[in-house]
Amino acid sequence: MDHSIEYRPAFALLTVSLDEGESIRSEAGAMVSYSDGIGIETEARGGIFGSLKRSVLGGESFFQNTFVAEQAGDVSLAPPLPGDIVHQRLEDETMYVQSGSYLASDVALELDTSFGGAKTFFGSEGLFLLKLEGTGHSYLSSYGAIHEVELEEGERHTVDTGHIVAFDGTTNFSVERVGGLKSTLFSGEGLVCTFTGPGTVWLQSRSMDSFLSWLIPKLPSSSPQ
Questions:
Q1: Cβ(12)–Cβ(141) under 8 Å?
Q2: Which InterPro entries does the annotation name (predicted)?
Q3: What is the C-alpha separation between 78 and 121, in angstroms, rounded?
Q4: For 62-84, what is each residue's pLDDT tens digit?
Q5: What is the pLDDT at residue 222?
Q6: Structural contact between residues 50 and 36, judged by C-beta atoms closer than 8 angstroms
Q7: Is 185's pLDDT higher than 80?
């Protein structure tokens, strides 16, 4: 399985080249195109309960598409928002992905939701994170460009919760306030997530929450009938 990522970082397009018999799983709606000889199967992965967990709790689509190469061919995928795509191959590893950043992965990887406790709830990342586990290729998307931060053992790095794409299962994290109560309420930053290495953290250069906060006040209100 080979891949290429074009038009980075603003309008990234992923093209995966499959040999005969290979397959890749993606989020519903991510498909841009595929060549002759590629079959598509749409199903609720992990059964109804597993799909409900990912959909309701993990923020992902209920159904997923699996593209199977009946003969060698290409599949092109893209996220719904303008932004970047990054490839990461897992080697018997675990990665946690924020809601909306999962694009596609090798069918050999297990995809599930993982309870993150109250710290993820108060960090605005939801009670559940998506969990990728095993060995295989994964593809993550972002709103804006993706920035990779490598953390050494014990090294700390603080990130606004709206800018998190994914992080290694080897990292520890905690959600904290920015400074005192005044800074939390009025700095525009609110709560942040502090990661402690070793491991890698992937960040996005734009925040959907910040964009919506800027956009919504500018939208015209409906006039009374």
A1: yes
A2: AIM24 (IPR002838), AIM24_sf (IPR036983), Trp_RNA-bd_attenuator-like_dom (IPR016031)
A3: 28
A4: 578 999 999 999 999 999 999 99
A5: 67
A6: no
A7: no
| Chain segment 39-67, per-residue pLDDT in tens | 999 876 544 444 444 444 444 455 789 99
Contact 161, 192 (CB under 8 A): yes
Quickly tell me which residue has 């694009």 as its tokens.
103
Q: What residues have CB less than 8 Å from 93, skipping those under 6 apart? A: 133, 134, 135, 168, 169
Listed residue (101, 157, 107) closest to 137, CA to CA: 107
Q: How far apart, in whole angstroms, are the C-alpha atoms of residue 55 and residue 48?
A: 10
**How many residues are given for the chain?**
225
What residues does each domain of the chain span? Answer: 2-218
Average pLDDT, the chain: 82
Give the pLDDT confidence score for residue 142 in this predicted structure: 94
Q: For 21, which DSSP code?
A: T
Fold of 2-218: Double-stranded beta-helix (3.60.160)
Distance CA 89, CA 134 (A): 10
- Each residue's pLDDT tens digit, 114-130: 655 444 444 444 445 78
Instruction: Identify the DSSP state of 82.
Output: S
In this structure, the number of other CB atoms found within 10 A of the CB of residue 87 comes to 15
Question: Alpha-carbon distance 34 to 199, whole Å?
Answer: 35
Q: List strand residue ranges (DSSP E) for the chain, in order.
A: 2-6, 13-18, 23-27, 31-34, 38-43, 64-69, 73-77, 85-97, 102-106, 110-115, 128-141, 146-151, 156-160, 164-168, 172-177, 191-196, 199-204
Q: Are 160 and 208 in contact (CB under 8 A)?
A: no
Cα separation, 85 vs 149, whole angstroms: 16
